[in-house]
Write a structure and sequence with these properties.
single chain, alpha/beta
Length: 207
């Protein structure tokens, strides 16, 4: 019989609201511009990480959700997380940054922005988490119209079964039309009251 996996912590960031383990931590004004909301949340959380201000909006979405997950989790930012994997699903990839990059190409000056170009890679957001938290395990982002909960459970379970994976970050994150959306989970074998299964990683989508 395979060992069960459990949800240690869960975060939802969407519609200008932040939820941690089912509890509302912050509610912003719905009409706040996404960039202003992100900056407000960054300051509210007391984060000191200058790379944040160079990130694209997709990366900021996942970064802020992960910071909320890390806070109070017992995980260390300074120490390495060699045994942590990341499995995420995303709907629009880097489309928001792509549109901005295309606009620089079509400008009269025709000087594409290097700072935007580096954000047109689908896994940049995961790379930012790896740098911040020294995550060194397997990582992958699947591009799909919707979160595939069954696929997520299967993939994370396979990583644990293969060995070398002690913890995993997984879930869904997206940014499109000035709207952020993230439902992320910290998974390990440490027993909690929530088994890692399809039901327990999809219920938050109704928020």
């Amino acid at each position: 019989m395979k060992d069960s996996l459990y949800i240690q912590r869960e975060v939802s960031l969407k519609r200008r609201q932040l939820w941690v383990d089912g509890q509302s931590l912050f509610v912003g004004r719905p009409d706040t511009h996404s960039a202003d909301f992100f900056t407000e949340l960054y300051r509210l959380m007391g984060i000191n990480y200058l790379r944040f201000f160079k990130m694209d909006m997709l990366s900021k979405t996942l970064f802020l959700a992960s910071e909320a997950l890390w806070a109070g989790s017992g995980l260390s930012v300074a120490e390495g997380n060699e045994d942590m994997a990341m499995v995420f699903y995303n709907g629009h990839s880097s489309l928001d940054a792509d549109i901005q990059f295309q606009a620089t190409l079509q400008s009269g000056a025709f000087f594409p922005s290097p700072s935007l170009f580096i954000c047109t890679l689908a896994n940049v957001a995961l790379g930012e988490l790896a740098i911040r938290h020294k995550i060194m395990g397997e990582n992958i982002t699947f591009i799909a119209p919707n979160f595939d909960a069954a696929g997520c459970v299967d993939h994370v379970t396979a990583l644990f079964s293969a060995g070398g994976c002690g913890r995993a970050l997984c879930g869904w994150f997206d940014f499109a039309d000035h709207q952020e959306e993230a439902d992320i989970f910290l998974i390990s074998k440490e027993k909690t009251n929530k088994i890692f299964n399809i039901h327990n990683i999809t219920w938050k989508n109704s928020l």
